[in-house]
């Protein structure tokens, strides 16, 4: 089973860039898609699908240095990402955070676009513990 699309939220950029580099070597046709929650302080240059060079804060080399690795980046509304975290908790028993919600939301859209028989992979990088004081997460 090959991976057709990999979806990952972009924080420092380390996970998406590391996974993208390995996947693109092994599966040259894989599509790499980034997800950024709308509330993220990460910037994006107008008219390009790539984040500005300062998003990594110096921790990871700039994403714009390797535009060949990321095929597309989506901003996900906070409300949609939070709604997905509620679904993940209720339907799957996964106590996931907002970045995870954004990942799953974009992964589901990609899967729908690709159709049956395709594999879309994501990672749930955060949990809900860190958001328990936020009224959106207290049910």
UniProtKB/TrEMBL annotation:
Keyword Secreted: no
Stretches assigned to the Tryptophan synthase beta chain-like PALP domain: 2-126
A biological-process GO annotation: sulfur compound biosynthetic process
Keywords: Pyridoxal phosphate
Gene3D superfamilies per the UniProt record, alphabetical: 3.40.50.1100
Ubl conjugation as UniProt keyword: no
Pfam families reported in the protein's UniProt record: PALP (PF00291)
InterPro entries membership: Cys_Synth/Cystath_Beta-Synth, TrpB-like_PALP, TrpB-like_PALP_sf
Cofactor: pyridoxal 5'-phosphate
Disordered: annotated segments: 38-57
Similarity comment text for this entry: Belongs to the cysteine synthase/cystathionine beta-synthase family.
Protein name: Tryptophan synthase beta chain-like PALP domain-containing protein
Species of the source: marine sediment metagenome
